[in-house]
Request: fold
Amino acid sequence: MSALSVVTAGHGLLAAGTDVGTIPVPSISYAAIAPILIVLGAACVGVLFEAFVPRGQRFVAQVVLTIAALVAALLDVIAIRGHSVVTASRALSIDPATLYLQGTILVMAILSVLLLAERSVDSGSSIVAQAAVVVGSPADRRLATSERVQTEVFPLALFAVGGMLVFPAANNLLLMFVALEVLSLPLYLMAGLSRRRRLLSQEAAIKYFLLGAFASAFFLYGLALLYGYANSVNLADILTAQNTSTQSDVLLYLGFGLLIVGLLFKAGIAPFHSWTPDVYQGSPTPVTAFMAACTKIAAFGAILRVLYVGFSISAWNWRPIIWVVAIASIVVGSVFGLTQTDVKRILAYSSIAHAGFILIGVISLDKAGLAAILFYLAAYGFTTIAAFGLVTLVRDSNGESTHLSQWSGLARRSPLFAATFTFLLLALAGIPLTSGFIGKFVVFKAAYHLAGPLVVIALIGSAVAAFFYLRIVVMMFFAEPPEDGPSVTIPSAVTTVAITVGTVGTLVLGVFPQPLLDLANNAAKLRG
Amino acid sequence: MNSAQGIQTLAWLLVVVPAASGGLLLLLGKRSDRWGHLLGALVPVALFVYVVALFFSVRSETGEARERNLHLFSWVPVGGFKVDVGFLVDPLSLTFCLLITGVGSLIHIYAVGYMNHDPGRRRFFAYFNIFIAAMLLLVLANGYLVLYVGWEGVGLASYLLISYYYTRPSAATAAKKAFIANRVGDVGLSVAIMLMFAYLGSTDFAGVLPNVGKLSAGATTAIALMLLLGACGKSGQFPLQTWLPDAMEGPTPVSALIHAATMVTAGVYLIARSAPIFNATQAGRTVVVIIGAITLLYGCVCAFGQDDLKKVLAYSTVSQIGYMFLAVGLGNGVYAIGILHLVGHGFFKAALFLSAGSVMHAMNDRIDMRRFGGLARVMPVTYLVFVCGYLAIIGFPFATGYFTKDKIIEAAFDKGGTSGWLLGIVALLGAGLTAFYMTRALVMTFHGKRRWEDDVHPHEAPASMTIPMSILAVLSLVGGGLLVLSGNLQHWLTPSVGEPIEAGAHTINPNVLLALTLVVIGFGVLGAYVTFGRNRDTIPITQPAGSPITVAARRNLYADAFNESVLMRPGQWLVRALVFFDNRGIDGAVNSTAAAFGGGSARLRRMQTGFVRSYALSMLAGAAAILAVLLAVRFN
Reply:
C-alpha cells in the first residue's frame, strides 16, 4: 500500500512535470552565443586532452588548443559585431556593449595565455609541476626544478574565460550568478598553482576562495530579496517592477545593496578589496595578469549591466553608494600603495585605485560614461598585462624577485626593461601620451558635470599614486644595484609578444586613441 | 585653407620616418653598430628629396593656396574639447623643412666621417635622427599643442646630445644647464598655450591666430610675453642665454646642426609663426626688439674674450639670433627678413662649425685657439671653408651676410624715431664687433706661427667631411644672394607672415647706409688686424691678464656668476631649508602633506593583517555600511 502510494506520488510528480513541459522551449540564437560555446567547448576538449594526449605533447597541444579557441572566439565576436539580440528566454543579452567587452576579454585572455605558456624563464613553467605534493617535502624540492608541467591550467583558464564571457551578457541574475561561479572557481584553483613560494600561493588561493564564497553569498541573498520584490530575476523585469510592484521597496534596497556587494568584490573595489593584494602577490604572476585584466573587465561589465539595465530609474538612490565606494577605492589604493615594498602588491593597490577611477564613469549613467568605461577597461588591460609580464622577468635563483629593494639599479642591468616598465608606470599614473591619460580624461570628463568633487578627489588620488609609481622608477634608475641582485631574464617569443602588444597598445592608445574611442562610443549600447 | 592633396598627404612621413629609424637604432643596440650610421645618414637625405618635391607641389600654387592643412587625427575628441593633430604645409614651414633636411643631410654625412672612431656612433645617429623628427614636428605642427610636443622633443634630443660624452663631468653639467634653462622657457610656452585655451578655447593656429582681435590688450601682451619667454629659452636669448655656449660640450656636428643652424632658431620661428599675436601688441614687440638688441651686443662682446674656437662661434650664434629677434620684433613686414637671415645663418654658421670640427678632428679634439696657428697651410680645404663662412658672417660684399644682415640694419633704422636710431646703431655696432671677433678667430686659428702641442700632427679631413663642408661654404657665399635676388624668399613667405612693407621714406638712404655698414665692418677687421694680425707670430700660448673688459668678456659678462649667486645658491639654500623643514615636519608631527599620507599609510597598513577573518569582517562592515546608506536614502 505504502509502496503504491509512493508510486502514485511519483506519478503525480511526473504528471506535474508534464504540465510544466507546456513552457515553450526557449529559442536560442546560436550565432550570438557562438563565441561562448567555442570557448566552453574547447575547455571540455582540453579536459579530454589531459586524459588522452601523451604527457610529452600535452603542453604544446593545450597551448595551441587554448590560443586557437580564444582567437576563433575573438574572430567570431568581430564577425557578429553590431548584433543586438536578447536570447535564451531573455537570459542573455548580446548587445554592442557585451560584444565589445567580450572582445576585450578575449584579447586580454590571449595575452595572458601567452604569458602562461612561457617555459624558458622558469624551469618548466611558472605553474607548479604537481599541485598535490606537500610543500617542503623532498618530492616538492625535486619538482621545483624539474621540467614537468601541469597543463590543467589551460582548460581551467578556458572555463574561467567562458564564465567571463557570460558574466557581462547575463540579463538574468540567476545566470549571472552561475557565470560568476564558473569564472571564479577556476581562478581559485589557478591562484594556488605557483611553482615558487607555494605556501604563499596556496594561502592566497584559500583566502580568495573563502572570501569569494562569502561574496557569492551576499550576491545570492540579494538576488533572493530582489526576486521577492519583483517576482522575477530578469533585470528588465526588475526595472519594470520598480514602477509597478506592490512589495515594500525595503526589499528592493536591501536586495540591491547585497547584490552590488558581490559584484564590487569581484571588481576589487574598497571596502571589498582586502583579498586583492594577497591574492595578486601569491598567485603565479601570469595568473595575476589574467585576473587583473580579464576579471576586472568582466566584473565591470556585470556592474554596468546591473546598474544601467536593472536599476537606471532608481539611480538617485544608489549614486551615494557609488560615490562612497569610489572614494574609498581611490583613497585605499593610493594611500596603502605608498608604503608597499613588493612590486606585485603595488600593482595590486594600483588596480584598486584604478577600479575606483573606472567606477566614477558609472555616476553619470549616460552613454558618454559607458563609452568612457569601455575605453578605460581596454586601456588598463593592455598596460596591466604588460606590467605583470615584465614582473615575471626579474629573477634570481629563488624565482621572481618582487621586493622593491631588489629592483634597485635594474636600469644598469637592463635599460630596455627599465625603460619599458617606466613607460607602463607612467601610463598607470596617467601621464599624457599614454593610454592611462586618455582613459582617465574621458572618464573624468563624463562624470565631471554630475560629480565635480569626486573628480577632484580622484585627481588628488592620482597625484598621490604617482608618488609610488615614480618611486619604482627612482629605484630602478638612481639607486645602486645590490651585490647579488636579480637579473632580467630574456624570455621566449610568447612572453615577448604579450609584453610588446601590451606596451604598444598602451602607447598607441595614448597617441592615437580615436579609433578605439569611436569603437567604444558605438558600442555604448546596453539592451535589457 | 585648402587641405593637403597628392604627395602633401604624405607629410607625416617626415616625422615618422626619422623617429622610426632613431627608435630602431636604439632598440637594436649593438646589432646595428655596423650599418647604423649609414641608415642614420640616409634618412635625412631621403627626407630632403621628399621635401624638395613637396616644395614644388606647393610652389605651383599661388597666394593663399600655398597653405595646406593636413589633418591627421583627433587626439582627444571628447565633447566640446577637441585637440586635433595635424600638419600645416605652408611657405614658412617648408622653408624650415628645406633648411632642416638640407643642412641636416650635409651634417649627417659629415658626422659619418667625424664620428668614425667613436664607439658610440650608432647611438649618436639615433639621437640625431630623433632630433630631426622632433624638429620637423615642431615646424610642421598646425597648432601650438603639437608644436609643444616637438619643442620638448628637440629639447630632449639636445640634452641627450650635449651629454653625449656623459662620462665627462663638464658635458653632464652643460646638459643639465641647458635642460634647466630650457625648462624656464618651456614653462613660458606652456603658460602661453594655457592662456590661449582659456581665452579662445583653442590651441590650433587656425583657431588662435585669426581671433587675436577678440582678445583684450592685456591678454594679448601676456600671451606674447609668455611666447617670448619660451623663444628666449630655446634660442639662447637674454636672460636665458648662458646655456648655449656650454652646449658646445657635445660633438661638433651637434653644435653645427642643433646649436647653430636649426634648433636654436626655433624661437624665431615661434615668433614669426605667431605674427598676428605680436602684430597686435606694441608692448610685446618692444620687448622682443630690446631683447634682440641686448643679446646681439652681449654675444659680440663675449665672443672676443673667448679662446675656445667653438665658444667664439657659440657666442656668435647668440649674437646672430639676436639679430633675428630684432628683425621679427620690428613687426609687420620685417618677419621675412628675420627668416632670411635665419636661413643664411644656417648656411654659414654650419660651415664655420664644420670647419672648426675639422680643426678639432685634426688637433686631437683640442679646441684652444692659443694652441692652433698656422693651420692654413696644413688644412687648405678647411681653411677655405672657414674663410667662406667668415666672409658671409661679417657681411663681405655679395656674400650671404651682406644681403641678410644689412637688411636688418636697414629695417632697424627705418623703424623711425629715437628707438629706430638706437636700434640701428646697436645693429651697426654689432656688425663691426662681429667683424672684429671673427677676424681674431681666423687669425689665431689659421695664421701665424704654429703653437701646437708636441703630440699633434694635423692633417686634412677625409672626403666625407670636406665635401659637405665645401657645399655649405659655397652656399654661404652665394646662398644669400640667391635667396634675395632670384627667389624672393620674402614674397614666398608672404602667405605665412604677411606682406613685406617697403618703407617709403628711409631714415638713411640705403646706399649711404650700405657704405656706412661697410666702413664699420672695415674698422672691425682693421681693429682686429692691428691687435692680432700684426702680432700673429707672438700670440701667447697661455691667456694673458688682459684689461677689465677682456676679463669681463671672458667670463661672459658675469652672467654665469650672476645666475650662480642670485639664482643657483639661493635655490640650493631654499632646497636645503625645505629639506630641513620637511624632515622636521616628519619627525615632529603631521606638519607636511607627505608626512600625513606616509604616516597615515603606515598606520592604515596594519589593517591589512593577512587574516582572512578580519578581511571577511571588513567586508561585512562594508556591506552593512552600504545597506545603511541605502536605507538612509530610502527613509529620508
User: Anything to note?
Assistant: Chain B touches chain A through 36 residues (CB under 8 Å). The CA atoms of residues 221 and 284 of chain B lie 6 Å apart. Chain B has a mean pLDDT of 84. The two ends of chain B are 60 Å apart (CA to CA).
